Amino acid sequence: MIARTVLAKIHVAKKQLALDDDTYRAMLRSVAGVESARDLAPEGAAKLLKHMERCGFLPTKIQQSRPRVAASRAAQLGKIEALLADAGRPWEYVSGMVKRICKVDAIEFCDGEMLGKLIAALQVDAKRREKR
Q1: What is the model's pTM?
Q2: Same domain, 48 and 83
Q3: Do 122 and 98 form a contact (C-beta atoms < 8 A)?
Q4: Which domain covers residue 107, as residue numbers?
Q5: How many domains does the chain have?
C-alpha cells in the first residue's frame, strides 16, 4: 500500500498527461503489473512515476501544510496606514473598524490576525472605490 500523497501525485500525473482511463490502466499493467494504483507497492509507484516523468509529467513540489506566518506588526501597521492614505481617511476611521471587527477598544490591543482582518476590510473598501 502506498501513501495517499503518492497516490495523489500519480493521479495528478495522469491528468497532466491527459491519459484516458484505458491508456492509464494499460500503463499500470505494463509498468507496475497492477490493475489499480491502489494496489501499487512503493517500488511500483516509484517506477510508475519515473515512467510518467519520462512521458512528460512535470512534478511540482508538494506544499507542506503549515500555519502561515503573519507579517510583522510594523509591516501590517504600515499597510493599514498606506490604505488609509490612499483612501484619504484618518486613523479615527480605523478606530471604529477595530471596535466593530476586532471587538477591542484600540488598535494597540490587536494581534496579527486582527490586523490582517483590518487590512482585508480596507482592501475590500479600496476595490469598491475603484469601481466607482
Answers
A1: 0.47
A2: no
A3: no
A4: 73-131
A5: 2
